[in-house]
Design a protein that fits this description.
oxidoreductase; 5-stranded parallel sheet; FAD/NAD-bd_sf; 7-stranded mixed sheet; 463 residues; FAD/NAD-binding_dom; NAD; disordered C terminus; globular; alpha/beta; flavoprotein
Amino acid sequence: MAAPRILIVGGGFAGMECAHKLEKILKPGEAQLRLVSPFDHQLYLPLLPHVASGVLTPQSVAVPLRRMLRHTGIVPGGAVGVDPEAKAVVVRKINGETVVERYDYLVLTPGSVTRQFDIPGVDQYAVGVKTLAEAAWIRDHVISQLDLAAASTDPAERESRLQFVVVGGGYAGTETAAYLQRLTTAAAKRLRGLDPAQIKWHLVDIAPKLMPELGDRLGEKALSIVERRGLHVSLGVSVAKATEDTVTLTDGRVLPCRTLIWTAGVAPSPLIATLGAETNRGRLVVEPDLTVPGLDGVFALGDAAAVPDLEKGADAMCPPTAQHAMRQGWAAAKNVAAALHGRPLTPYRHKDLGLVVDLGGIQAVSKPLGVQLTGLPAQFVARAYHLGALRTMTARFRTAANWGLNAVAGDDFVRTGFQAERPATLKDFEKTDAYLTPEEVHAMVTAHVEGRSTPAPTEPRTR
């Protein structure tokens, strides 16, 4: 009798932790473990602003899956559809080949994508901070704008190249704006022919407060820090329209700008829509034990799942943060093993450890276990937390070494050119148009069962 097949979709915090824990819990040969991921690493998302600004190298935040997983087969591709009735997942491999992966138990951890709104031009001219490729592209792009502005004699061109807009006053947006503003300020001192006064960073958010989750005191402190550095923060304002060289805000201002970074929240992976299951604001509804109601053998967790927060009670859901995703991965592994062995499943429960926001240099605001910290103590807590959350000693050493080198030697302003020729939109980087309709998924799975060859649609659907 063949061993049960456990298929994990997604190699992020939740998926990798689940696979790692299952390898420890299950005996050799007790189950077949397979993990579907287009990348062979777990991306440590909270440090992407550091990569975008060049403080950290990309390798520092990309933890190789094979350093953590010794007995799990890795399918190099992205899941583009799920057929729960047939217990099958359609996977588009990185070479374009489409295959069907069968399962007895399915763990869904597809994560999230940058949330888009129906705003003219955003889909064409905005880029997010959700992938390693986006972070690398942003760094090259920002430095190229400085180089081009320094070489230009056209005042209008210089103005548009030296204004940068970041949309989203959450952690990702605030940290990205803070780190990149420090980078451009330092670069302006070395680039001849560049007036530092012309460099303007705008942080825009429709919310009335910056990072309201921090509370009034820390939120206002973070606002004060970034404004003292020269960031222009506009709250209660959003983007009305974007073009190649302008960004129009909802208050009527038109900013000459060729850089629009979009961090205005996240949305669950479009993969969730292929299941036809109940959702809550796009996230897959799950029980406290992480099972999906009505779907046999399916577990869901991480950003794409509406996991009840039993610590807060009422109708609270766990926020889409790394600390919850990691711990949900551990809980899911225990429950998958329990289901395999016919034992009762355990509800997921975790008390939030707090928040850290690294603003660069010695500046940070942190709230570990409810204790409010600012300045150097907050920075120490923030970086200690990140080092602890990185999953290998190699990644921790690289990250700490990069931080130390940057603190001593300062920034280098080098364009790598790795992303220079690729399209730069949210869709291109995050593959949001790669997913199939439920009907297409069913047709492909049926063809696979019958041994027929059915090609994937030539025009991927957008959800």
